[in-house]
Every structure is written in structure tokens, then in C-alpha cells.
Automatic annotation (TrEMBL), chain A:
Top-level taxon of origin: Bacteria
Name of protein: Ferritin-like metal-binding protein YciE
UniProtKB/TrEMBL annotation, chain B:
The UniProt record lists the keyword Plastid: no
Basic and acidic residues: compositionally biased ranges: 819-832
MF (Gene Ontology): 4 iron, 4 sulfur cluster binding; metal ion binding; molybdopterin cofactor binding; oxidoreductase activity
Domain 4Fe-4S Mo/W bis-MGD-type: start-end pairs: 38-94
CDD domains linked: MopB_CT_Fdh-Nap-like, MopB_Nitrate-R-NapA-like
PANTHER family from the UniProt entry: NADH-QUINONE OXIDOREDUCTASE SUBUNIT G, RESPIRATORY NITRATE REDUCTASE
Name of the molecule in the record: Molybdopterin oxidoreductase Fe4S4 domain-containing protein
Pfam families: Molybdop_Fe4S4, Molybdopterin, Molydop_binding
Length: 161, 832
């Protein structure tokens, strides 16, 4: 049984997405929705990791801790450059690229949840399945939000930019 | 004669649910006007969303007064202070009477030919070099349906850009979205008459007494009548509405959703749910129940800062109502988690099974008088006639009526909201922006940013307006527009009542109706349909209205049974009005069949937390079958919370005497005298801590800017600072040149405070918006307050008559609206 691997996969993918969301939100302070929702969504990822912790223990997967702490130097630098970037014509193309990267990262998380959901069913772990169902839905919303935003920004950047 | 500045709502005419609201005709004529020689022209008031029917008094080619129309279904003859006195702005000597063009840095008079020539030349240049996505249009909530529909067709099919929005984004975008999310399409289900018939009123973030005074007069007549309805009020301020309440919940700003989830928790926990209705006519109950289970009153009390017992008491009243009317406005729409919260108000009525029947409805109210029409015509973020931009059949249908290629209509993404339009302008991808009848340099959040965008070299700004306002000062071309009373057209209020407003006088100088300006532009731009005929075939407002009837036929806002003839001087007729309902429709969803069919709905809905747009398959999976959708989500804390640096919560709002940025109300002497200057409100406890007394000059500062104004110690919630949003800079004694004139110092993007004394409330607000409706957040920001100078005991200029009523009572009472005649009529047959 490799339930532990499936759990670790999800946790790693979530943490990676959270990290990317934090980075992107700091880089795009002039896009308030990206900045604020980025934060909400990153916290959701971290919350997902926490919710999996008891199952990680149950199935002997290594402990994963979401990074918590005050904004680091790099974040502050990103924020500063984000402010400068705010007025630049490069802001649009960079935003589009970042959203596309996020979308790929979110998709990895989504697939990891699909796999864990299958595993949870196969081992008849009802509790785990419940957590998977809600968290998976959150991830799908995150992906969908990214798609909504990409649809809106792409033509502006690529046609009018 | 009554003083209707001092007595805002006029004489009471109490009644019970079993008798109609009595008629009281309010009239105000300028002094010395011979009443017998006056000619009366049928119209309705355009100073708020109530849209009270009125007649305009004309003498010697001038507007000289107004009177309410006795037969009007909205007002039963009444008018409020703005309606009675606001018309005087039309006659103001500083109207724009000729176009202005910027030359050598200054706005100078020009001919129409010259000005339009320049607008067209620049449009062509931008279109050639950058395409339609470099063009933006931002309009108003105060034009007529005919102006909007012309603009909508011009921009969507002619220019072909998605960047068209209205300032209704700031006032009713959330109403629009909440209605779409729950019921499938826009359009308030109820009738204003439901207030006459209900036994319980639930007002959430809706200061009815100041936003729609005639509606409040209507409600007061019930509250002071024989079978007084119970009233539950949610508002951080002790408004005149709150003072009448059975339960007042002065919650912390930004926590509406937690409270509303809590109330639903109680309704479900105490079995106050109409299960038969919910099972037959809604989807989403299980998910809603699972979410609100997390909001017991004790937890909610902690989040919202009100006693758990009061939350229970409110839920008990709502849970025992038989005829419940709920209503919400900006306290919900301009606050945190706006659409999510507005949807919960819908949910409460649905859980109680109270919709579509007399005295049972929910109002997602409008703010501006003609906001409903921007939505219906598609001059904001909607597609014409409540069509769904994601539904290719709807787009094809529209393209067929407009005789254009469907691909010409931009539908690859939702229409762009104004904050995003300004963002595109900021990064340089929008290079042409036409602003129609609105004043973003005072009304949008974070003003120093807005001013610096408008002043950008690479942005060509056209402004059409009746007056040269703060935004006009930053324009490259200014076009003089005619206003209400000077043009004919229709508009629709928040209970779907359509009125015709007939031209009473000529516009001043060379000012023209907005529709004529758009038609001129379309002609000069040679906009054509796919057969090479002019894209916009109409020339008169009536022809435009006829075209709009065709484009709405079969849609929920069906105008096909209306005509100018039918509307002239009528009591007002509610859409849908068609062959089946020739006299209009008082209530939607009387059969509890909602507009949620996937093929018919206006929107496939959103995830309320993130704003992620659902697509066709997601919606189809709900299998709505005409059932309403109970949308739900969790409360999240606001993004900007009070901190050590900025310990107080900041919120903005209106005062009864002013409208928007005072473009009109500042020019009506009685209204201006009643509220002549900016003030900020502090709670008594906060004032004491800060060492501030009534009338002292204080500085209020957020991370984005600072303002100075005189402090008013009022009944606002402790920890909250309130500022009216009306006051800008154009009327300062020195013309604003040293005192925050946008062209002088704002344009350089100066930091907080600038080099002059600033007073506009939006210097402090945050650039953030609701994820679903994209309505900006004006009700949640963190600030600090410090005393700047002693007021010497002179009270602040805040009016004493309403919410701003002082806590200690020695200020002189606000007055000065003499000369209004109120005539109460004997009971008459109820008009619809
Ligand atoms: S309530 Fe509104 S529409 Fe009626 S008179 Fe007052 S401002 Fe005008």
C-alpha cells in the first residue's frame, strides 16, 4: 500500500502552489484581486496540508508543515518591484505568464487530489474521502478562477498591449 | 407650507395593511411664479432609484418647479427634498454651454465640429494602431434608457470593445449579480406596494431614510399606522431607520456574511424553514445548511461585535414573519463579500418561502435613478436585455437583431468592470477613454491614483457632462450635455416601474442630449451593420425605444407592450409588459418558477468566494428546472483590518441632501445650505479617547491618503469613522487651485495628503472589489484620526436631521426648505 505517497504528493503540490501564489501576489500588488485572492487561496492550500496531517500520521507519510512566518526579505523585494512594475507596460505580459504558471501548478494539485480520492475509496477510508472531496472542490475553484482571469487578461495583453 | 429640509419625509399619513397608502401631493414652485400660468410636463425624478413620478412646472421657457403626481404608483404624489429642490441645478449659470478642447494645456471653447472632429480623429488613430481593446467607455446611472441603448450598441457592435461600464458598478452591480446568482436573471421580483402589505421588514445596510426618502415616508406611514410591521435593521450607524427598529444590529463593517449566515443558522436550527417550498422551488439547501451550521450566534456575536441574544431576537422576528420584505443596499453592496452577503438576504426569503406574493419579497435595491436601465441595455457589465454573454445562442440572437457578425460582439470574457478599465489605462493598453455623465475623479476609490491615471500623457480623455467637474478638468475634450427636463426619454426604477420623462425646456446654449452626441459620433465614425447600412438606425428617442422593445421581446425585461403614448403621464408601468401582460406585471415569480433554466438564464453563476465563473456544464449540472439557487459560502475576514498604525474602521456613505459628487445638489440652494461642507463622524467614546470635541478639525489618514474635516460626534458604532462621499474640490473658495485641485497637485501623483488640504472621502478608500460583482469596496478601510485644530465649540456642518443627529443636542436644527405645499387627498382607489 502506498497511501502515504499519494498523501505526500498532494501535500507537496499544495505547498508548491501556496508558495507560487504568495510569490505572484507580492509581484502584482497593483492587481488587487490577484493580490488579495492570492492570499486567500494560498491560505487554503496551507489549510489543506493541515487537514491531511492526521492522515499522514495514520499512513506513515512524512510530516509536512506549511511555512508560516513574517514576510521575508525576498517577499518585500518582490512587493517593491511589484509597486514599480504597477505602472509599466510589462505588468500585463508578466501577469499573464504568472497566471499560466499558477494554472499549471493548480492542475498538478487537482490531479494529486484525484489520485488520493481514488486511493481513499480503494482503502475504504470514509474520513479521508470526506476531506478529499471538500479540498478537491476548493482546488477546482482555484483552477477555475485562474481560467476566468486568464480569459480576461490574455486578449488585452496579446492584442492591445 | 412645509419646510421640507427640516421635515425630510413630510406629514404622516398612517395606514394599515388593509388600506391603500394615502395620496399626498407635494409641490414646490419658485417664489413669485404665477401658478395659474404654469404649464405642467409629465416626468419623474432622477435623483434616486425610487423614481417618483412628477410633473415639471414650466414658465417662460424655464423650469420653475415640480409637483408629485397623485396617480403615481411609486410615490402617490410625494416628493423628497432632492426631488423638490434639485431641479434648480438645471438653471444654474455655470452650465456647460459649448464644447471645450484642450489647447496648450488649457481647456478652451470650441465648436461642436471641432470637438467631435478631434474625438473621431483620435478614435480612428487608436483603433488603427491598437484595435478596439485600446478603447474604453465609462458612463453613468443617470442617463435615460435611450442614451444607454444607443451607447451599448455603439460600443459593443460598433467599436467592438468589451471595455464599457457604468458607474452603476459602484452602486448596484451587486444587486444585479445577487439577483442573477439566485433567480437566474436581473430584475427585482417585488413591488413597492409590498411595503404597504408586509408585517415584517428586514433592512440590511440600507439607510432608506436618506437614500430613498419617499420610500421611507411610505414605510413610516406603516410604522406609525394601526398594525405596525416589525423592523430589523443591520447598520453600524444609528440611522433614522435604526431608531425605528425593533432590533438594531450595529455590526462591525465587513461582517455582513457572518451575521446573515448566523441568522440562517437560527432559522434552520429552530425549524423556521418552509420545507415544502424549499424542496419544491430551490436547489442548494444541503450545502447551505452545512455551511451555516458553523455559525451559531455566539461565534457570530464575536465576529460581528453584537450580542448573541440580539442575533437570536432578530432571527426570531424573521422566523415568525408571515409577510416578510427584505431589502439591502450599499451597506451590503459596497462592503466585504458583497455578492455573497446579498445572496444570503435572498436565501432568507427563500428559506421562509416568501417571494412572489403580496407583502413577501426581497429587494436588491438600486442606488441611482436609472441604474436598472444600464443593466437592461447592456451599457454596464451586462449583455443587452439580460442576455447571457456565455451563451452563444443569446449572442447570435443579439447579432441578428443588430444585423452584425456575432464575432463582432466581444464575448470572450465578461464585460470589463470600471476598476479594470482604469487598470488597463494605467498600464497603457487603453488609450482612449470616454467618460459620460459621471465624476470618477471624486467617486472612485483611492483618488490620487485615479487622478494620475486620468492625467497620463498617453490617455485621451473625453468627458460629456452638464457641468465642468473634477474629471472634466483632466479631460482633453469636454462636451456639453443636456440633462433631465431638457430631453425626452424613459427610465426604470427598482421595482421595474417605467416612466416617460418628457422634454420640458430647451438645453442651454449648445448642450445636446447624450443620445444625440452618440449618434453624431457613430455617423462620423461611419459605423455600419453587416450590409453597410448605418449601425444605429434611429434618430429620435421614440425610435430608439421602439428598437429596444424589439430587442427585449421574449426576455424577462420585456418592454414590447409599452409605448411612449401609453407611458405619457401614466402612474408608471412595470415590466414585463407584453401581449400577455398589457398593463405590466406587479410581481415576478408569482408561480415560483424562476428564470434559472440554463438556456434562459442571464449568467451561469460564480463561486461566491473567488468569483470563478461557472460555465454552461456547471450550471446544467444543477438541474434547476426553474428552481431558485440557494448560494452559500463561508465568511472570511476583510483584507484590510485595523492595525496599530491604523486602529479605526472607515466607512463612507451619503447624506440625504446630496447626490453623488454634488454636481446638481450643490447648485440647489436649499440642499447646499443644509449640508454645505465636509465632516467626519466619530463615536462619542472614540472622540473622547482622541481628545476631539464636536466641531474640531481632525485629520483622517489611511495607507493611501489623508483628509481633513471637522469632526462630528454621532451615533456611529464605536471604532468606526464615517465620511460622506459627496465632497470634492470644484466648489472650494479659491476654485481648488491651492486646496487639492486635481490638476494642480493630484496629477503629479503626490503621496498621502498632497500639498493641499484634501477632503474627498475617497482619498482614503482602498482599491479592491467584490470578486463576483466587481463592485469596489467603500465600506472597509483602516484609518487613524488625530486632532489638528480646536473648533472653538462651533458645531460641525453635519445636518442634524438624520443619521448625523448629534449625540449632544445643542446644534441648531437643519432647516431652510420652506415653501413646499403638501396636499393630503381623501382615500382613493388604489393605483397599481
Ligand atoms: S425619493 Fe428619490 S426619486 Fe423620489 S423625490 Fe426623492 S430623490 Fe426623487
Amino acid at each position: 500500500m502506498r497511501v502515504d505517497t499519494a498523501i505526500s504528493e498532494v501535500q507537496d503540490a499544495e505547498l508548491d502552489l501556496a508558495k507560487q501564489l504568495h510569490r505572484v501576489r507580492e509581484r502584482h500588488t497593483a492587481e488587487p484581486d490577484v493580490h488579495h485572492l492570492g492570499n486567500t487561496l494560498a491560505h487554503r492550500c496551507e489549510e489543506h496540508v493541515r487537514r491531511l496531517a492526521p492522515f499522514a500520521e495514520r499512513y506513515g507519510a512524512p510530516v509536512r508543515e506549511p511555512h508560516v512566518g513574517s514576510p521575508r526579505l525576498l517577499d518585500a523585494l518582490r512587493r517593491k518591484s511589484g509597486e514599480l512594475l504597477g505602472h509599466s507596460e510589462l505588468a500585463g505580459p508578466l501577469l499573464l505568464r504568472d497566471l499560466c504558471d499558477l494554472s499549471l501548478a493548480a492542475h498538478e494539485v487537482e490531479i494529486a487530489w484525484v489520485i488520493l480520492g481514488q486511493v481513499a475509496q480503494a482503502v475504504r477510508d470514509r474520513e479521508l474521502l470526506q476531506v478529499v472531496t471538500t479540498c478537491h472542490e476548493d482546488t477546482r475553484m482555484c483552477e477555475k478562477w485562474l481560467r476566468t482571469r486568464i480569459k480576461q487578461v490574455a486578449p488585452q495583453v496579446l492584442v492591445a498591449g | 407650507m412645509a419646510d421640507r429640509i427640516a421635515d425630510i419625509w413630510g406629514a404622516r399619513t398612517p395606514h394599515g395593511a388593509d388600506s391603500p397608502w394615502p395620496v399626498r401631493v407635494d409641490q414646490y414652485l419658485a417664489e413669485g411664479v404665477p401658478e395659474g400660468e404654469v404649464q405642467w410636463v409629465p416626468s419623474a425624478c432622477v435623483l434616486c432609484s425610487n423614481g417618483c413620478g412628477m410633473d415639471i412646472a414650466v414658465h417662460s421657457g424655464q423650469i420653475v418647479g415640480v409637483r408629485g403626481r397623485a396617480s403615481d404608483r411609486v410615490s402617490h404624489g410625494r416628493l423628497g427634498p432632492k426631488g423638490l429642490f434639485g431641479w434648480q441645478a438645471n438653471n444654474s449659470p455655470d452650465r456647460l454651454t459649448e464644447p471645450l478642447v484642450r489647447r496648450d494645456g488649457e481647456l478652451r471653447p470650441a465648436s461642436w465640429d471641432e470637438a467631435m472632429g478631434l474625438v473621431v480623429e483620435r478614435s480612428r488613430q487608436v483603433l488603427d494602431e491598437h484595435g478596439p481593446l485600446a478603447m474604453g467607455f465609462y458612463n453613468s446611472g443617470q442617463l435615460f434608457l435611450e442614451d444607454y441603448y444607443t451607447l451599448s450598441l455603439l460600443v459593443r457592435a460598433g467599436i467592438g470593445t468589451p471595455h464599457l461600464d457604468g458607474n452603476t458598478r459602484l452602486c448596484t452591480a451587486t444587486a444585479d449579480f445577487a439577483l442573477k446568482e439566485t433567480f437566474g436573471t436581473d430584475g427585482d421580483p417585488g413591488s413597492l406596494r409590498d411595503f404597504d402589505l408586509c408585517d415584517t421588514i428586514f433592512a440590511v445596510g440600507h439607510n432608506i431614510a436618506e437614500t430613498q426618502t419617499v420610500l421611507w415616508a411610505r414605510i413610516l406611514d406603516r410604522l406609525h399606522g394601526p398594525d405596525r410591521p416589525r423592523l430589523v435593521v443591520v447598520d453600524p450607524r444609528r440611522t433614522a431607520v435604526a431608531r425605528e427598529a425593533d432590533v438594531h444590529l450595529p455590526i462591525r463593517n465587513g461582517t455582513n456574511l457572518a451575521l446573515l449566515n448566523g441568522i440562517q443558522h437560527e432559522l434552520i436550527a429552530n425549524d423556521r424553514v418552509d420545507r415544502a417550498f424549499v424542496d419544491a422551488h430551490t436547489v442548494g439547501f444541503d450545502q447551505l445548511a452545512a455551511i451555516v451550521a458553523d455559525y451559531p450566534p455566539e461565534r457570530v456575536a464575536e465576529i460581528c461585535g453584537v450580542p448573541a441574544e440580539d442575533i437570536r431576537a432578530a432571527a426570531r422576528i424573521l422566523g415568525s414573519a408571515d409577510r416578510l420584505v427584505s431589502t439591502c443596499l450599499q451597506g451590503v453592496y459596497q462592503s466585504h463579500q458583497a455578492t455573497a452577503s446579498a445572496c444570503q438576504v435572498n436565501n432568507i426569503n427563500l428559506l421562509r418561502g416568501m417571494i412572489g406574493e403580496p407583502g413577501r419579497t426581497v429587494f436588491q435595491m438600486n442606488g441611482q435613478p436609472t441604474a436598472q436601465n444600464t443593466r437592461e441595455t447592456g451599457a454596464n457589465g451586462d449583455m443587452t436585455a439580460l442576455r447571457n454573454w456565455q451563451n452563444p445562442d443569446h449572442v447570435a440572437d443579439l447579432a441578428r437583431i443588430w444585423n452584425v457578425d456575432p464575432l463582432q460582439i466581444p464575448t470572450w470574457a465578461p464585460p470589463t468592470h470600471v476598476m479594470q478599465i482604469f487598470r488597463h489605462a494605467e498600464t497603457g493598453s487603453i488609450r482612449f477613454l470616454w467618460i459620460v455623465g459621471t465624476n470618477p475623479a471624486v467617486s472612485l476609490p483611492e483618488l490620487h491614483r485615479i487622478r494620475s491615471i486620468l492625467a497620463q500623457e498617453n490617455l485621451f480623455v473625453v468627458v460629456s457632462d452638464a457641468f465642468l467637474n473634477e474629471t472634466g478638468h483632466l479631460a482633453d475634450v469636454v462636451l456639453p450635455a443636456a440633462v433631465w427636463g431638457e430631453k425626452t426619454g424613459t427610465f426604470t426604477n427598482h421595482d421595474r416601474t417605467v416612466h416617460l420623462s418628457v422634454k420640458a425646456v430647451d438645453p442651454p446654449g449648445q448642450a445636446r442630449p447624450d443620445m444625440d452626441i452618440f449618434l453624431d459620433y457613430a455617423t462620423r465614425m461611419e459605423l455600419k451593420d453587416k450590409d453597410g447600412a448605418p449601425l444605429i438606425p434611429w434618430r429620435t428617442p421614440e425610435e430608439c425605444f421602439e428598437a429596444f422593445k424589439r430587442v427585449t421581446a421574449g426576455r424577462p425585461c420585456d418592454y414590447s407592450g409599452l409605448s411612449y403614448e401609453k407611458l405619457r403621464g401614466s402612474p408608471g408601468i412595470q415590466w414585463p409588459c407584453n401581449e400577455n401582460a398589457p398593463e405590466g406585471t406587479e410581481r415576478l415569480y408569482a408561480d415560483h418558477q424562476f428564470n434559472t433554466d440554463t438556456d434562459y438564464c442571464e449568467d451561469y453563476g460564480h463561486d461566491l468566494a473567488t468569483g470563478a465563473a461557472h460555465e454552461r456544464n456547471d450550471h446544467a449540472a444543477l438541474r434547476t428546472n426553474g428552481r431558485a439557487i440557494l448560494k452559500s459560502t463561508h465568511y472570511l475576514p476583510p483584507h484590510e483590518a485595523p492595525s496599530e498604525e491604523f486602529p479605526l474602521l472607515y466607512t463612507t456613505g451619503r447624506t440625504v441632501y446630496h447626490w453623488h459628487t454634488r454636481t446638481k445638489s450643490r447648485r440647489a440652494p436649499q440642499l447646499n445650505a443644509a449640508a454645505p461642507e465636509m465632516w467626519v463622524e466619530l463615536a462619542a467614546g472614540d472622540a473622547e479617547r482622541l481628545g476631539v470635541r464636536e466641531g474640531d478639525l481632525v485629520r483622517v489618514e489611511s495607507a493611501r491618503g489623508a483628509i481633513e474635516a471637522r469632526a462630528h460626534v454621532s451615533g456611529v458604532r464605536e471604532g468606526v469613522v464615517f465620511a460622506p462621499f459627496h465632497y470634492g474640490y470644484w466648489d472650494l473658495p479659491d476654485g481648488g487651485a491651492t486646496d487639492g485641485d486635481p490638476t494642480e497637485n493630484g496629477a503629479t501623483g503626490d503621496g498621502p495628503g498632497g500639498n493641499g488640504r484634501r477632503r474627498a472621502a475617497n482619498e482614503l478608500t482602498v482599491t479592491e472589489w467584490d470578486p463576483v460583482s466587481h463592485q469596489p469596496l467603500f465600506k472597509v478601510a483602516a484609518v487613524r484620526v488625530e486632532k489638528v485644530a480646536d473648533g472653538g465649540g462651533v458645531p460641525s456642518p453635519a445636518p442634524t436631521t438624520t443619521t448625523a443627529r448629534p449625540v449632544s443636542g445643542d446644534a441648531p436644527g437643519t432647516s431652510g426648505g420652506d415653501g413646499v405645499r403638501e396636499t393630503v387627498e381623501e382615500a382613493r382607489e388604489e393605483t397599481r
